[in-house]
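Reading a protein record of the kind used here takes only a little practice. To see the layout at work, look at the sequence and tokens printed below.
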Amino acid sequence: MKALVGRVCSAVDPLRVGVLVSGSGSNLQALLDRQAGSLYRVVVVVANVAGAFALTRAKDAGVAAVVEGHQGITREAHEARVQVHLEQHQVELLVLGGYMRVLSPWLVGQWRRRIVNVHPALLPSFPGMHAAKQALDHGCRVAGCTVHLVDDGVDTGPILSQAAVPIHDHDDEASLQRRIQNEEHRLLPQVVEAYAAGKVVDVEGRVRCCALS
């Protein structure tokens, strides 16, 4: 039995996307660059770091940009404040665009099957931090990136799409990371568009992305 995850959107009634960020926001920029004529719109960007360049990217694109710092308060209090902004902007899909905090089970529960993350490795290999360095240290010949739904674990949610990146003999962490990011910037908007088009489905309890545009 196949069930739709989310709803089928249109250019007239696009998917409302919120993005959580901590830094530069290059994946946010990829979403912004490709949203013209798409089935989704980024409606709010929430940063936990006041100086995050992602906020400038959002403002330049005319998107609401909010700082919600986490210092000095509990994780629960911080996430409750983030949730208020997401609700105010009627967000339907939450994207983690370089958000450097692990979400609590409470926030994941609020957005079950409606949170997308992009990770710089071919999961389930090399979850967590410094995935490119882990791939190099293990002598891998192929690295890559994964777009997946977020669950209660760290980089353990259902995989929606992946892209492979060959590792060259002269690669260091920085050069490999740059090429992986190029694939992230290509893949993430495609998956968000597929989600908006109704191509992310639950097939007998297993979430699948049926096709990418």
About this structure: The chain has two domains: 13-111, 116-213. Strands lie at 2-4, 15-21, 40-47, 64-67, 93-96, 115-119, 142-149, 159-166, 200-203, 206-209. The radius of gyration is 17 Å. The helical segments are 26-33, 53-60, 75-88, 105-110, 131-137, 173-196.
